[in-house]
Design goal:
Length: 212
């Protein structure tokens, strides 16, 4: 099966409605990622076909669990190679998606990818999460393989509005990490994700700050 066919099939299996333009941009992002990865080691996954399942579809699987808003401000903490932020920005062009990472090498790649794929709704920030002070707070802070839940919530809470959500992408159900969360953070839901072509458990941990 072609890369485009695998992507289209995976998107259909996820129940998402992404038009041909979005799918073309997702394929273009994989091409840029694969090219840069040859010399910059952005991801351990090197085959474009596996990038579709392990990166694109894994990122897009969170969409049904994000707020259903026509406009949304979302920040991807420790975005690395632009995941999950770039696939989300492609799927939801009306959203403002900020990609934050402390590595200049990685943010240089993300700026190049956003330019080549033509993503005007993407903002790239070179900073540590704890040092970044946004002019406008975000509705959602999301992370993928960034850190444990306690550290993620500690570093990201100041970036979201009082009604904002903190969302962490995890593998197996993180019982111990949830138990270690501070009382100021409340877990709303921990939905399991089914990612086409990806074996192993995947979960989202959706959190918010408790009212004081």
């Amino acid at each position: 099966m072609s890369l485009g066919g695998a992507l289209a099939g995976g998107i259909k299996a996820l129940g998402l409605d992404l038009d041909a333009k979005a799918q073309t941009k997702l394929s273009a992002y994989v091409a840029v990622l694969e090219k840069w990865n040859r010399t910059h080691n952005l991801t351990a996954i090197r085959e474009p076909e596996r990038m579709v399942t392990h990166h694109l579809l894994d990122s897009l699987a969170v969409l049904p669990h994000l707020p259903h808003a026509s406009s949304l401000r979302i920040i991807d903490i420790g975005s690395g190679g632009g995941l999950p932020g770039i696939p989300l920005a492609i799927a939801r062009p009306a959203w403002h998606v900020a990609l934050l990472d402390s590595s200049r090498k990685k943010t240089a790649f993300m700026r190049q990818a956003a330019a080549e794929v033509s993503l005007p709704n993407v903002e790239v920030i070179t900073s540590r999460a704890e040092d970044y002070v946004p002019a406008t707070l975000f509705d959602v802070a999301i992370s993928r393989a960034f850190s444990d839940l306690a550290r993620f919530s500690a570093l990201a809470r100041h970036l979201v509005a009082s009604s904002g959500k903190l969302i962490a992408m995890k593998g197996g159900y993180p019982h111990e990490e949830i138990a270690d969360l501070p009382v100021a953070v409340r877990v709303i839901a921990v939905p399991a994700l089914e990612v086409p072509g990806l074996e192993g458990a995947r979960h989202l941990v959706i959190m918010e700050g408790r009212a004081t």
